[in-house]
Amino acid sequence: MKPVISIKLAVVALSALSLSACVSxxxxxxxxxxxxxxxxxxxxxxxxxxxxxxxxxxxxxRGLAGDEIAIQMADGRIAYxxxxxxxxxxxxxxxxxxxxxxxxSESHLAPTLPEDGVRAAYELxxxxxxxxxxxxxxxxxxxxxxxRLATRLVASRGRRIVGSSVFVGxxxxxxxxxxxxxxxxxxxxxxxxxxxxxxxxEQTAR
Length: 206
Fold this sequence. Notes:
Layout: E1 7-9, E2 33-35, E3 51-55, E4 68-72, E5 78-86, H1 90-104, E6 109-112, E7 122-134, E8 144-155, E9 160-172, H2 178-204
Parallel strand pairs: 2-5, 3-6, 3-7, 4-7
Antiparallel strand pairs: 1-5, 4-5, 7-8, 8-9
């Protein structure tokens, strides 16, 4: 049975930690579908007792730095979904989700972007290590989406590292179809961004 989704092979054999070497072997084509991650509802801000956090766009290996939807085949090969894209480069959509998660949480944190020009008390330095659908049960079965994000919280005063951590989110797609896989990406990424927001609130409250 053929898979119900189309893919573009990237590399014949590649470990999960070598995504920076990914190269598509097929010519580019105009995507037929563009996907985005969902965001929590923003809260209403009141008062002035906020701790400003600057959320820097995550660093990512070249294979995860674009807007292609990455997958890892059962034999370790890295590929991309054909005729499907994220609405923006992967680091950017994760940055947006993290900011939206902070905005939707009941904490004392107010997120900002570097281009906002706002003086922040802390900076979040992020490294996106994984953001792919893993076909760990064979190429025709529903994949496991895995998101892994390394974080360093830096205090602007003194440029000292307040804390560091790694957050991992996983979600099994309900089927081997594009909509189900994107929903699993959404679930895993939301788990990571919420865990990050909770951790940051704890670190800055000390």
